[in-house]
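EI: anyone free to look at a 434-residue chain?
SC: sure, send it
EI:
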Amino acid sequence: MSGSSPHLFERAQRLIPGGVNSPVRAFRSVGAMPLFIREGRGARIVDVEGRSYIDYVMSWGPLIVGHAHPTVVEAVLSAVERGTSYGAPTEMEIEMAGMIAEAIPSMEMVRMVSSGTEAAMSAIRLARAFTGRDKILKFEGCYHGHADSLLVKAGSGLATLGIPGSPGVPSRLAELTITVPFNDPTALETAFAAHGDELACVIVEAVPANMGVVLPEPGFLQNLRRRTSERGILLIVDEVITGFRLTYGGYQDVAGIRPDLTCLGKIIGGGLPVGAFGGRRDIMEMLAPQGPVYQAGTLSGNPVAMAAGIATLKILKASSSGYRDLEQKTAALCGEMEGQCRHLGIPVRVTRIGSMFTAFFTDGKVTDFHSALASDTQRFAGFFRRMLQEGIYLAPSQFEAAFVSLVHSDQDLARTAEACRVSLSHLAKGSAGD
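SC: here you go
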């Protein structure tokens, strides 16, 4: 009834720029045609031709309890039956804010928004107002959404498409954004020496996942917290991906840091559009209508998204072994992949934390954006295409994360490991994707 993926893509390109509504979905960097998806159930998605794939994109992270989880679906249907949007407060917004504040103590007050981009740009506006300073500092390869100030060396889709920045961002605005390499304390000190008194905030992904998963070096985040506090610079930790993904709460608690502001998204919407930012009460009270910093949104705290997010968080909180199981599943899968690559002589570095990972096709340690870019993207493209043939759906970019969910079964993981073996064998023979 709907046609094939190639047919739909042809139609889409006449109506939608590039045929997709988010650039990485176009599959350009992997030399393939995008799949159009009909449905998802558990750990699998099904395309319009009826082919089933084990999914490790999971809507780019939020579906930690799987596609169409019955409890989440029931909550959404119940909410929809009462109306899809009111443009007025609901009790569910208070419940969600309370769950977040309880799980992430640094978020004393919370403002709901509709996307991670909106959360990050609003947090930065608030930081500028609170400090009276204009400049911000971010790290190369960290992606915080597509607000103008944040598209400088932003990794992810920009790296996938080979775009160094973005036209349309005024140079005078870009000059207010200072960038330094991730995991480089020396570069950070140099930037602080030159711009410290002008910096409103430093924004950082708790664990970068938009240049692929890159782990913070021991002490890096803790030093960042200490140095920003000393200079009166607000620390914004972006946990849009890591929030409730690695633990019930934020990675900041694992790292032992308390940021001034935190950005959330993904899982707190249970697969529906959502974002949130929050932090110190004295900072958050500057937001309108209590304070002078304006931020608003018709769909902020949307009741359907709140219902999905609350249901998801309740499942996670009630699962005594959930995060431990995710850790074990993901570690086993990554170990299989690394072992197969070693056996075949294929250089790879699999970086993993909890249930998120990236296989970088490089023999060097990946610690920042520069070392991530040293990966063999053509080799990754061949691996991606062959895995797709084997029924495994990975992110169509070397510079993204893969996500394991609670519903990926032992059989799913075993099938994925076998698909890796076949795909890597073809890759070693130089025929991947054929």
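EI: The two ends are 29 Å apart (CA to CA).
SC: 👍
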